[in-house]
Amino acid sequence: MGSKRFTQEQKLAVLKRAEQMGIKEAARAAGVRYTTVYDWKSRLEALGEERFLSCKPFMPGRGIKKISPQKEEAVLSAWKRCPALGPGQVRNQLRRQGITVSIKTVRQIMEANGYKGYRKRTKQKEEGNRFEARRPLELPQMDILEFFINKLKVYLLILLDDFSRFVFGFRLLTQTTIDEVIGLVQEAIDRYGKMPACAGTADREEMLADRGFVFYSWKGANRFEKYLELERIDHTHASAHNPKTLGKIEALNGHLRREL
To answer: In this predicted structure, which of 39-43, 203-207, 249-253 has the lowest mean pLDDT?
Structure first.
């Protein structure tokens, strides 16, 4: 069979004839392999007639690749001996016999003869529940970013507003202590104040932080938690091993790491 190039309209005409006389007969009449016609049929079913006709066919320099009857028979023979094999395994079996054929060609021949391969489904990314404070000062977030300056390990303590992403304050430290954490929060309160409670409600400002030792104690309340209670600020702990809870400040930490 000679190499031919078909327009989309010509391909559709061949497929119309295939509905009447069968794929193999239509392929023989058009001068192409029946696997090629089967591939056109699959594309037509997937795209629909309108989009199929509007597609621009790929024009390889060598034209349509020929599949010799001997290779086709070898593929089908290897597959029939062990129907559980997939295209890649059939290709490997043929290579051991000294027959070189691509996986794509093996798959085309097998699909044209009833093979329905397993298509790996792409797992859709699950979106987590998003939350955001309703107004400024309602939910400050606090976290510590560790990095090195030359060989010196330093800690960047950051206080961020959940609603506006505004940084209330930060401290660059060589050692983290509860006193430094309390000092940063007190400076923010002195400068920006606290969220006023809504009339007729019991709304209180909250502080969201992870379970680091300066923020949280497994045995009772540490001095930072007692300080927040005196300031009438509810302390909310982030879920363990779940950085998405502090997603906004973790995103800021990521930007800082890339810059530094």
So the answer is: 203-207
Distance CA 217, CA 224 (A): 9
98 phi and psi angles, rounded to 5 deg = 85, 15
Tokens 């005196």 correspond to 230
> To 10 degrees, what angle do helices 103-112 and 87-96 make?
120
Amino acid letter, residue 46:
A
pLDDT tens digits, 85-108 = 888 888 898 888 888 888 888 888
The CATH architecture to which 140-259 belongs is 2-Layer Sandwich (3.30)
Are the C-beta atoms of 33 and 27 separated by less than 8 Å?
yes
- Residue-wise pLDDT tens digits, 104-142: 888 888 888 888 876 666 666 555 566 778 888 888 999
State the first-to-last Cα distance of the chain, in angstroms, to the nearest integer.
64
Per residue in 53-71, pLDDT tens? 887 655 554 455 667 888 8
**152-161 sheet: strands from edge to edge:** 167-173, 152-161, 140-149, 206-209, 234-237
Q: Which token pair is 10?
A: 């010509």
List the domain boundaries for the chain. Answer: 1-64, 67-115, 140-259
Q: What are the residues facing 149 on neighbouring strands?
A: 152
In angstroms, the CA 216 to CA 224 distance is 8
Region for residue 98 given its phi and psi (left: phi exceeds 0; alpha: psi -120 to 50; beta: otherwise): left
Q: Where do runs of H (alpha helix) occur along the chain? A: 8-21, 23-30, 34-47, 49-54, 69-81, 87-96, 103-112, 178-192, 223-230, 247-259
pTM, two decimal places = 0.49
